[in-house]
Amino acid sequence: MRAAVLAGPGQIRVDEVALSEPGPGQVRVKLEGCGVCASNLGPWSGPEWLTYPGEPGGMGHEGWGVIEAVGEGVSGLAVGDRVAALSYNSYASHDIADADKVVRLPAELADQPFPGEPLGCAFNIFHRADIRAGQTVAIVGIGFLGALLTRLATDAGARVIAISRRDYSLDVAKQFGAAEVIPMTDHQAIIDRVKELTGGKFCERVIEAVGKQWPLDLAGELTAERGKLIVAGYHQDGPRTVNMWLWNWRGIDVINAHERDPAAYVAGIREAVEAVAAGRIDPSPLYTHRYRLDELAQALDDTRDRPMGFLKAIVVP
């Protein structure tokens, strides 16, 4: 099998390695592709604590493909099933996954890319946000996740205010149902505009989906009294400071929407499968860039640098 290896800071090589056999309760998936996650950018940058080389296929956790081999004791899955897998070495041609972390893809999704983990994350974050009809929801950061949450919140009957630094992303937000869009430029101007749009009340729900200090600061400012601030961005580049005076005064609930329970991940993936198969949500316009496995370095650079039109990268073996 072929597998990408993180050889050093900003360095990827593709190795030929032995094909792994599934153990009891596992399956081997012949991968069709794997999404590229912004969480990869920390290891990609070369932090001091990381050792090299990494594991073959390492960092890849958004894979989907066809089951090629089934281990002992596996039931309900068979060779030939097309699945999304919650596994962790999917920058490769094959990966091993626990059978209880695999979700079968129905015929309605044939030939469609399906990076299950981030799609499931969107649904889990949406539920943690407790969004209801009639609320005003600000989403700070419109990438793949922010666009999906815009659609989900709009379909739930909320009015979405989308805030992003790129004009392209704001256009996507409109396509996914945003009622208002605001360029993420001047801090106070954004606050003033949201205050105007909400009659001075600000937003019952604010989702921060960037993972940086300034968007987190901004999200707090936009949250209404007794509202909920949902942290969906992945904050991996150091500690954060918060305006506790503001958070106390407004009495807001702060929700860290990252899941770590694999069962919760899988439940989100199952819900995403059902929603996409039924046509309730269409993520296909968000898969904007496609790369071969030996182009993974470029895919990671583009995920970091966000060239014009970029939202989500997919890597194929």
Provide a descriptive summary of the structure in words:
By secondary structure, this protein is an alpha/beta fold. It folds into two domains: 2-113 and 287-316, Quinone Oxidoreductase, Chain A, domain 1, CATH 3.90.180; 119-256, Rossmann fold (3-Layer(aba) Sandwich). Helix content is 30%, strand content 27%. The protein has nine helices and 15 strands. The chain has helices at residues 41-45, 116-129, 144-155, 167-175, 187-197, 213-222, 244-250, 262-277, 296-305; strands spanning 2-8, 11-16, 26-35, 63-70, 82-85, 94-98, 102-104, 136-140, 159-164, 180-183, 203-208, 223-231, 253-256, 289-292, 313-316. Strands 3, 4, 5, 6, 7, 14 and 15 form a seven-stranded mixed beta sheet that branches. The chain has a six-stranded parallel beta sheet with strand order 10-9-8-11-12-13, sandwiched between helices. A two-stranded antiparallel sheet has the order 1-2. α7 (244-250) links the parallel β12 (223-231) and β13 (253-256). The chain starts with a strand and ends with a strand. The model has no long low-confidence stretch (mean pLDDT 97).
